């Protein structure tokens, strides 16, 4: 459900939409004027302040946020949402500008040597929990990572209680472990190459990507081959042959493969593509997928329901749940993993 609004004053056309949690957010901002760039960030236009509410959007110039803060508590919450949304926009501005064929290959070369650290799954969970997420790409949550992991796992377990789906429970627990890339004392990687929705590089950036106008700053966007629909790939090549934007999905997938994890193929698929929203949520990039991808899509979509909608306020007990999950870790993972 999209809506377009035109502002008064500075001519801005902003597209807003309901996000996955039912909040109104800005998805695209285009300035229809030849003299300024056609995509914005709050860094580029610090004098513009945006307040998104359910049914209107206020845009002010040279005016501190406080002056346009609506009066009711309900609207005040929206003001906070807007500030968070600003961080999300900044994150995607960087990610869309910097994820290129070249930068992705460089990250793969750096991290797929697996000679950086030796950590067990549980060590990695604890490390992940130490990360203070200042510039989250996900506007839906600010809870400790360990709680998000356990809630996702428990939500899956509730929907798939049968023992034959124990692999799926474990996927819930580990799916974001690749985020340790941003741990200050370990890898210290910036957010743009760790989190956020992912997409292929080496071919045209689909309009189904969030904040699509930000790709205009990406050098691959005007590359003679990378800017074509199939780019460097053959039609229907299969996602396994596609270079994805570098982030926590691909990193954890590669760590698991390198360390001989015995989880079923579905688990590897879910981990590798859970942030590939333009594909599993919007149906884009089907020119690159093959039969196997289409078969696995079901599990990626199933997983997504629990990754998002299990972000509930009540906290699961780590002590009570760990024995069960430790038994799954022992079943499928080696004691220590090379990262
Ligand atoms: Fe994730
Ligand atoms: Fe997650």
From TrEMBL:
Pfam families: MIOX
Keywords assigned: Cytoplasm, Iron, Metal-binding, Oxidoreductase
Gene Ontology terms describing biological process: inositol catabolic process
Main localization category: cytoplasm
EC number: 1.13.99.1
Cited SUPFAM superfamilies: HD-domain/PDEase-like
Cell compartments where the protein resides: Cytoplasm
Source organism, top-level taxon: Eukaryota
One Gene Ontology cellular component annotation held by this UniProt entry: cytoplasm
Single annotated GO MF: inositol oxygenase activity
Top enzyme class: oxidoreductase
Catalyses which reaction(s): myo-inositol + O2 = D-glucuronate + H2O + H(+)
Keyword Translocase: no
Entry's cofactor comment: Binds 2 iron ions per subunit.
Residues engaged in binding Fe cation: 148, 175-176, 248, 274, 307
Pathway: Polyol metabolism; myo-inositol degradation into D-glucuronate; D-glucuronate from myo-inositol: step 1/1
Cofactor: Fe cation
Family assignment from sequence similarity: Belongs to the myo-inositol oxygenase family.
PANTHER family linked to this entry: INOSITOL OXYGENASE, MYOINOSITOL OXYGENASE
The protein's name: Inositol oxygenase
Native organism: Planoprotostelium fungivorum
Lineage: Eukaryota, Amoebozoa, Evosea, Variosea, Cavosteliida
